[in-house]
Amino acid sequence: MPPQQDDMSRLAFFASFVTAACVTAPQPAGEEFVWACPSGTFTTRFDHSYTTALVFTDTAEYRLFPRSAAAGMRFGDGDIEFWENLRGAQLTGAPGGDLLDCELEEE
């Protein structure tokens, strides 16, 4: 017996819901990087498509988004900015002061 129109509509609705859920689901976190600065340390973690940077300091966690950069990678949220270029980095705008002249810690 062929499927009824109602059954097909339900199936199409369910399939679109499942597809939307798959597309919008957050991607698992990728590799972590630890940055050593003269005035402290912080850690960055990126999703696999580099559309979000999670930045962890001793006192807070920030979710930052890509910004244009002439070189390297730059992420921000309007107040806080992480910028990385050639194994060096800085975190600016965070409460507690800027972390400048940071170098990637080797494992």
Order of helices and strands: HEEEEEEEE
How many helices? 1
Within the largest sheet, what's the order of strands?
Answer: 1-2-3-4-5-6-7-8
Shape, please?
A: globular
Total tally of structural domains: 1
Structural class: alpha+beta
Briefly, what is this?
This protein is of the alpha+beta class.
Keywords:
single chain, about 110 residues, alpha+beta, Lipocalin, 8-stranded antiparallel beta barrel, globular
Question: How would you characterize the overall build of this protein?
Answer:
This protein has a single domain, classed as C-type lysozyme inhibitor (Lipocalin, Beta Barrel), CATH 2.40.128.200. The chain has one helix at residues 5-24; strands at 29-37, 40-47, 53-56, 61-67, 73-76, 81-85, 88-92, 99-104. An 8-stranded antiparallel β-barrel has the order 1-2-3-4-5-6-7-8. The chain is an alpha+beta fold and 107 residues long. It is globular. Mean pLDDT is 80; it is low at 8-27. A hairpin with a 6-residue loop joins strand 7 (88-92) and strand 8 (99-104).
